[in-house]
Design brief:
heterodimer, A: six-stranded mixed beta sheet, four-stranded antiparallel beta sheet, B: 0% helix
Chain lengths: 114, 114
């Protein structure tokens, strides 16, 4: 069965500092990996995805994520956090075979402190 | 704006009632997914349609049903509503079925059952 773990419910970081939001997954084979962000009273917005190739993928708003096959992780990172980055972040996976839907983690609330 | 339109944005109804949530996918997208977001369950996949055909079911109750019409819009029908059905219901669309395609989410319908 597929599962996605976001071990931290809450991450606090000071503005200007680097941020990391963690994600690990358990999926048979190599899945497609995604990050989404949800602002209050809004839908989920796509940030970035890993399909194949370079383990470091770059996405919207200066975010990037690193795929680590041996650790089955796909951590979201940003070199310098902005107050406007404060939101709920979801990691998601889609297996390469079988189900076509996205399986989501439980979300991590990021708060950037001015 | 993701291009996915959901109506209504808010819905308040009584227990035992039936409601219909509507989703218009992005132009050209053939896949529609429905998700339920609640505080205790996170984002749960309900059902997936591709070009009018049901492709996969997730944690969808028997009281819930959905369909995708020839113009590709989709409706999620919730009947015999219970207090526990109160949640945010999201529709997402993508151009293809699964693979590495990201899904684009609507802003959701917030259902409150009283």
């Amino acid at each position: 069965a597929q599962s996605v773990a976001q071990p931290e419910d809450q991450v606090n970081v000071a503005e200007g500092n680097p941020l990391t939001v963690k994600c690990t997954y358990s999926v048979s084979g190599n899945p497609y990996l995604f990050w989404y962000v949800q602002y209050p009273n809004r839908g989920l917005q796509f940030l970035l995805k890993y399909i194949t190739g370079d383990n470091l993928v770059k996405g919207s708003y200066g975010f990037e994520a690193e795929f680590n096959k041996s650790q089955t992780s796909f951590h979201l990172k940003k070199p310098s956090a902005l107050v406007s980055d404060s939101a709920l972040y979801f990691c998601a996976v889609r297996p390469k075979t079988g189900a076509n839907n996205l399986f989501f983690g439980t979300g991590t609330r990021l708060t950037v402190i001015p | 704006d993701s291009g996915v339109t959901q109506t209504p944005k808010h819905l308040i109804t009584a227990t035992g009632q039936r409601v219909t949530l509507r989703c218009s996918p992005r132009s050209g997208d053939l896949s529609v997914y429905w998700y339920q977001q609640s505080l205790d369950q996170g984002l749960q996949f309900l059902i997936h349609y591709y070009n009018g055909e049901e492709r996969a079911k997730g944690n969808i109750l028997e009281r819930f049903s959905a369909q995708q019409f020839p113009d590709l819009h989709s409706e999620l029908n919730l009947s015999s509503l219970e207090l526990g059905d109160s949640a945010l219901y999201f529709c997402a669309s993508s151009v293809v079925e699964g693979a590495g395609a990201e899904a684009f989410f609507g802003q959701g319908t917030r259902l409150t059952v009283v």
